[in-house]
Amino acid sequence: MIDVSVAYNRYKFLGHEFLTWLWYTIETDQAFLQKVDPELSSLAIGNRVVLENSRHNREETITIRGDGAGLEEGLIALKKGGKVTEVNLVYCAAEHEWRFQLKGESLALSGLKLPRTGKVEKAEDLEGAVLERIFLADKIVRLVYSLYDQFIAVRISPAWERRVAGEISMWIDAAIKGD
Amino acid sequence: MQLLSPTLSLTRYRVEGNLPDPVMDSVREGLKNHVIREIDNDPAVKSVGWTIPGTPFNPDFAGNHFVFGTSFVFSLRIDKKSLPSKIVNKHYHAAVQKRLAGTSREHLSRDEKREIKDDVLHRLYVRIPATPSIYDLVWQPEAGDLWFFSNLKEANEDLETLFSKSFQLSLVRIFPYTAAYFFSGLEGERLDALHKASPAVFNAGRAHD
């Protein structure tokens, strides 16, 4: 294994490509997402997407935020060579909703809102409440890492260069044209 | 308790190594030996230690309050004092004037100034209370998996240091490379492909490494 302090910076592009691939997959292949997580009823881009373009020796950051915000600017940023560095996601399963922010370079979760659980009114309720919260958080941890595992399988296979990366590029073009 | 709060932040770790049996006793010992030390009325600037969720200001590891199902749930508490520089300056200048008043000199030496500054900081840090920050963690020992409910750099670094001291186990932070390395079962050519990967470019219907 490569030294982790070196590997963090060297391979953070994998996290950014993962989030870009995830946006593409969300828009084009919900059936695939359901195969990865059979309990998933939907996964959608939420109210925040951050993109960065560090090509041509200049750093450019584009942040799109707000419920119902159009993602056209994000697609244009992708077209210019940008990658998704952070994304807010909305996951639905069994009539419950989870919202969270996922950061590409660290795969860290923030703003994780779990489905509502009962109030802890007595000390005896604490263990059940904690276990329920762990169970609900685990749904998202499993989802993210299952999806990342699928991404890595494709990313290091010959199919990435032969097919997948090109399909992502074509999706970006088609989405900008409004196809 | 942070784990029950409406929103959470989560950093994932892999725990490297095994605890001696009986595992629960090993964890309890590690927690007791590095329980948070109170630093109010003490010149210490920072204290980092373990505490119990639910009763973070009165930690008691004697029972099994840190065992929830098959997980260990406990908290990292970081107590820190911060002094506004303007307050330090005010007390420092007063102390310098007081020292000069007892001499016929107009200036103090560099060493004397340093000594006064240290003395001022010592007195002020004893007087101000520490601000506690509490971060829960969930450790699933069978899976070697640990979730720390903070993404703050300093809190994560303090966790890694204290965890290693307490349990003689190391924490490896999970990020894109380590996630692929540990969770995707890569060996041989596939591991080489990961190591050789370079950023892709998506544009104009074409992509290339």
Q: Could you describe the 3D structure shown?
A:
The complex is a heterodimer of chains A (179) and B (209). By secondary structure, chain A is an alpha+beta fold. Chain A has one domain. In chain A, 50% of the residues lie in helices and 25% in strands. Chain A has 6 helices and 5 strands, in the order αααββαβββαα. Chain A has helices at 4-10, 12-28, 30-36, 72-79, 125-155, 158-177; strands spanning 40-53, 60-65, 83-93, 96-103, 109-113. Chain A has a 5-stranded antiparallel beta sheet with strand order 2-1-3-4-5. In chain A, a hairpin with a 6-residue loop joins β1 and β2 (60-65). In chain A, α2 (12-28) crosses α5 and α4 crosses α6. Chain A is globular. Chain B folds into 2 domains: 8-80 and 131-196, no CATH class; 85-127. Chain B is an alpha+beta fold. In chain B, the strands form 2 sheets. In chain B, strands 1, 2, 3, 4, 5, 6 and 7 form a 7-stranded antiparallel beta sheet that branches. Chain B is extended, with a radius of gyration of 24 Å. The longest helix of chain B is centred in the middle third of the chain and has 18 residues, at 110-127. Chain B contains 6 helices and 9 strands. β5 of chain A pairs antiparallel with β1 (7-16) of chain B.
